[in-house]
Amino acid sequence: MACPDRLSQWTQEVSTVFAHLSQAQRWGLALWSAGIVLAGAAGLTQVSALLAEVLGEAELTVFQRLREWYLDQEQKSGKKRRELEVATCFAPLLGWVVRLIQVVPGEKRRLAFALDATSLRNQWTILAVCVLVAGCAIPVAWKVLPAEQEGSWRPYWETLLKHLGPSVPETWEVIVLADRGLYARWLWDCIVAQGWHPFLRVNLGSKAREVSSEAFEWFSRWVPAPGTHWQGQMECFAGKASRLLATVLMHWEPGYEAAWIILTDLEPEHAQIAWYGLRTWIEGGFKDFKRGFWGWHHSKMERATCVERLWLALALAQLWCVSLGCQAEAEREEAFRQHEPGADLPEKHIARKKRTRPAGQRPPRRLSCVLRGHLLLLAAQFQGKDFSIGILHITPWPEVMTPPQKPGTSKKKPIKTSNQKKRRKQAKRRARARVRAQK
Question: Could you give the CA distance from residue 428 to residue 30 in angstroms, rounded to a whole number?
Fold first, then answer.
């Protein structure tokens, strides 16, 4: 079966999800995302060279077609020039993600978003909203800004969240995680307005008081040392304009530099501070987009709108690979449960057997889902199989905080200052000079 025929399912899926786009825009999006996945890179030259061989067309023809897909209207040639409005794709993209999610039996239907910003050199800053799945992050809304642009990010975050609101069923529980630098009262209000639950970290340098108290005190009063924790409802922030009644989750895990202080509107008994550990997955997602996998850090684009369109193709490539990786991981876990030694024995016999892993705990993840999905697509290409789409497997959220380091490795290496490094280099040069002089 020819490669273009094997891409038909992916092309049809993209056309169905983004039916509001023109036929040329849908075809370009399908080609771009498939080319990124198969090439393992997001560079125009690499993707066009690969797709030219796949489609049996001239390389320059494919190059120009892919290039015009992300250009602005005034940059294109021809009379029927149209440009792709990326913001119109955020809701359909999230709706696609939600449809692919398969929940573990007995678990709630819930979703975790993370908000964060990443940068490319001193050129771009990208504000991104990502869905967190199986250790990976799938962007579903973003805004590209010049790195040196001044002004508040508030209108951009509010617009991104409003685009996504209608795509999540009201019966789902949604938490939105963000780090200390993004906390603001308006962000809290915007998240709540969508029917979602904020899960925002704040600095220790803020004050709060218990509901029955009158005096405000620093958050550090409740978590003064490693190993301490507290949770309950509090009035946060002494200033009247920013004052907020919220559930506060506080924990200082031994080995961390400071305590986690999390604000949420969930009831204290229904929230776990360990959920905040999911937020680190968005940092891994940014790494996937750059040096870790897709190579977007090599981009030379000079317009923010062009970068936003390329990110749409990258988001689809990420979604495709993560879905296949999740499906393979779910199948691997099922096979493990069925073939685990003693799985068919009564529980009393299993209890006597020495285990290397607690009963019911899934095997460790050896590859990220995005990498495993990419490898599966390459294998399908060699085997002549169809390029199918997988599922998104939402595993139970963590209930305990992960220690920052393995036991016995908590000591940090001393950090060398710039003067120390300079003196060390000078000493090496003098030593080499003495050796040359002796010769």
Answer: 55
DSSP symbol at 89: G
pLDDT one-digit tens code per residue, 242-275 = 899 999 999 999 989 899 999 999 999 999 999 9
**Nearest-angstrom CA–CA distance, 226 and 332:** 38
How far is it, in rounded angstroms, from Cα 35 to Cα 42?
8
Report the alpha-carbon distance of residue 28 to residue 31 in Å, rounded. Answer: 5
Tell me the angle at which helices 23-39 and 304-339 cross, rounded to the nearest 10 degrees.
60
Token pair listed for 223:
């978590």
CB distance 333 to 158 below 8 Å: no
Give which of 204, 199, 173 is closest to 115, Cα–Cα.
Answer: 199
Give the dihedral sign, CA 286/288/290/292. positive
Average predicted confidence (pLDDT) for the chain: 86
Domains and CATH numbers, the chain: 1-84+304-341+367-388 (no CATH), 89-289 (3.90.350.10)
- In this prediction, residue 334 has a pLDDT band, given cuts at 50, 70 and 90, of confident
CB atoms within 10 A of CB 139: 23
